[in-house]
Amino acid sequence: MFRRHENDRDAPYDGPMVKATGVFKRFGSLEILRGVDFEVQRGEVSVVIGPSGSGKTTFLRCINHLEKVNAGRIYVDGKNVGYREVDGRLHELRDAEVCRNREQIGMVFQNFNLFPHMNVLENITEAPRGVRRIPAAQAKARAHELLDRVGLSDKAKAYPAQLSGGQKQRIAIARALAMDPKLMLFDEPTSALDPELVGEVLNVMKQLARDGMTMVVVTHEMGFAKEVADTVTFMSNGKVVERGTPQEVLSNPQEERTRAFLARAM
Ligand code: ADP
Predict the structure, then answer these.
(1) Ligand 1 site, residue 57, Cβ cutoff 6 A
(2) Exposed/middle/buried for residue 34 (C-beta within 10 Å: 0-12, 13-18, 19+)
(3) Sheet (strand 71-76) strand order
(4) Strand, coil or helix: 70
(5) Ligand 1 centroid distance, CA of 12 (Å)
(6) What is the pTM of this model?
(7) Does the beta carbon of 58 sit less than 6 angstroms from any atom of ligand 1?
(8) Rounded to whole angstroms, how far apart are CA atoms 126 and 259?
(9) DSSP letter assigned to residue 206
(10) Under a CB-based contact definition with an 8 Å cutoff, are residues 266 and 234 in contact?
(11) Can you give the pLDDT at residue 88?
(12) 35 phi and psi angles, rounded to 5 deg
């Protein structure tokens, strides 16, 4: 067994891909996360469900340090994305270090967040070229591979405004994959889509899951959760209420709050 020390960058680490303990997050006086414990194993598809306002998006954003936690610890691949720990105390990392840590985490947002002034190919190659300094030809070749993977080979020269919502989201997934992330975070990736476009995005995500990607997916798509998730976490009121296999949580929930939510959602 290998156990990498927090600050030892070179040693292999075989623990969970995500481990969060006792995470608290406040916005002003509003306490949004109230002691979240959460773990995702390598290769696992972890679906997070729960009522609107329960803190799912906030927690996802804490994982890659887009939001700073007020208390608790979150490790991605054994490393704290936003802090260095010395003798148990947290010291905030410089922005450049946070960015470097964040490179290994792909994120897909509800509203796509594509760069509107760049075409599809430029959207996908921007980070590999700008951040990783990958030569243009190599970045382009990889972008074409990824476009093929999301079924949009013919859209390389299109601009986001010329694409449907489903196509935009598939491009956003390709763009995230271009950085070869270890972990993909999906924040309600199909919520902004017309119903007939949801399937094409879920299909790309299913393929990604089959390819072994570690994924945390906040979604209201219960069918996807049932079919693809290894674990389902139900959050309510800033806490994890229940967690287990889709069979356990969706078909045989133990907690009343989970049952009430599912009765409305399914
Ligand atoms: P969910 O994803 O479960 O719907 P969110 O994490 O989006 O929940 O939101 C939880 C609560 O936190 C909401 O009441 C929301 O208004 C609030 N919130 C989220 N981000 C901010 C912010 N940047 N500033 C203030 N309040 C916020």
Answers:
(1) yes
(2) middle
(3) 30-40, 18-27, 71-76, 79-80
(4) coil
(5) 36
(6) 0.93
(7) yes
(8) 44
(9) H
(10) no
(11) 83
(12) 90, 60
Q: Which helix (H) or strand (E) holds 209?
A: helix 195-210
Tokens of 129: 């070229």
> Does the interface ipTM go beyond 0.95?
yes
pLDDT tens by residue, 127-171: 999 999 999 999 999 999 999 999 999 999 999 999 999 999 999
Closest residue (by CA) to atom 12 of ligand 1? 32
Length of the chain counted residue by residue: 266
Ligand 1 contact, 233 CB (< 6 A): no
Q: Which residues of 114-152 are buried (b: 16+ CB within 10 A; e: fewer)?
A: beeeebbbbbbbbbbbeeeebeeeebbebbbebbebbeb
**CA 202 – CA 111 distance, rounded (Å):** 15
Retrieve residue 107's tokens. 């994120």
Residue 266 has pLDDT above 80, yes or no: no
Query: What average pLDDT does range 207-223 have in this prediction?
Result: 97
DSSP code string of 157-173: T--GGGS-HHHHHHHHH
56 in ligand 1 pocket by Cβ < 6 Å? yes
